[in-house]
Amino acid sequence: MKDKLIIYNNKLFLAGISFSFLFCIIGIVFPNKLIHFMSFWNAFILDKFSFFYLLFGLLIVLFALSLVFLPFSKKKLGETKPEYSYFSWIALLYSTGMGSGLLLRAVQEPMYYLKNPPVTVYDSKQTALQYTFFHWGFTPWAMYSLFGLIVAYNLYIKKEKNFLTAIVMNVGNIKVKKIIPLFIIMITIAGVIASLGLGTSQFIGGMNQYFNLDLGYKSLLITVSIIGIVGTLSALTGISKVIRYLADFDVAVSLLLLVFVACFLNFQDYFYTTISALYHYIIHFFEMSLSIGNFKTSEQFNKDWTVFYWAFWLAWVPFTGIFIARISKGRTIREFIFATIFVPAIATIIWFSVFANSAFEIVKTSDSSQFDNVFTSLFVFLEHYPLSIITVFLAALLVLVSIINSVDSAIFVLGMFSDSGKEDPSKKHKLFWGIIITTTAIGLTAAGSNDLLNAISNLLIILALPFSLLYLYIIISFANQLLKKRRK
What we know:
The chain is an all-alpha fold. Helices cover about 80% and strands about 0% of the residues. The chain is built from 21 helices and no strands. The protein has helices at about 1-10, 10-30, 30-50, 50-65, 85-100, 100-105, 110-115, 125-135, 140-155, 165, 175-210, 215-235, 240-260, 265-285, 285-290, 300-325, 335-360, 375-380, 390-420, 425-445, 450-485. The longest helix is centred in the middle third of the chain and has 38 residues, at about 175-210. It is globular and about 60 Å long.
């Protein structure tokens, strides 16, 4: 009886169930119409709001970094000691923030820029790295960090009652206060389903590529089911147990794979290209962010890459930011900003620089089109090195662990929402969300169409626009709060 009351008396839970059920049914019964609808609105938003996204991304980075220099940055988020070690803390936020994307794009994206330079100001290898750093560096992490900081500040310093009230504390409009949690619920569900479906496609693609298999959508369906179940079980144990251990494992094995690939680098070329790309990324950050001057890229490139990424990162902001806030109790604000922007951004830059420079060396003597497929590029890349049976296995394992980390973190955050914003939601709430996410992902995957999974990614872009306006409202309200406090 209590389980039923949890559902019937919880509007956020009902909204999540309704959204998942409706999207799943429409996707299965009218897949082509759904795909066309999502594609149309996705293209419309990327076309009409391109400059808004570019400007928004720049402003968030500037505002987030400026907070480091304010006196309030010395304050501590809560009165207790940090719950996690530095390694586990960074591992948790890193694995949640980027997931399997770093594996998906490690080789494919820089190779695409190498063949299709966004600008022709510098050497094509430097440009390829520079734009990869740009899309995966300071901007996405600043988006996550600022939202997480606002929530953590309101919860641990301003002593708000729970995470729900902490998110909307600075919002005066009652209707907006009610809308924000609903948007976060919908975006989180769509984001984790997209990650689950597309990440699993990379795993199956890698297995097919390396072992010359022909695994079809049934194998995809089974894998999605297993990941959903494991992710749910992980969330049920809490952050301090399986979620943390999986994050630690993810980062440790990723570092091992990174070091292995780095052993085969031409370090003279590597340091020259990487340092040059990083230098120009930093000094030309304004031009790249606004697509002006020598770094004015085509409208098509902006829509397909930069604006798409900014919208995609914004869609991941709510649950990632909330999760980061949840694991950061006991840290100072300055420590929080450095650890959630600079540390992961620099780690990401090192990751891409190693894989990209290695791929640049490979294509000097082989066909570059082998890295075109986003699902198989990493596995094709690893075949060029010794011990590929081990490294491919590790890469495939990392893909699975990354997806599980995204799933269990999302389930945990959704549980916090439906369980009155509690830091540690009950197992019943986490179990319900695990069932909803897993069954929805299975239902959409059963339709047997990658286009349908891409439609979910398009839905993220669509939902990101209204959320970006809400996010901007929250930022302005937070800035006003800080200004009023300084005047007193």
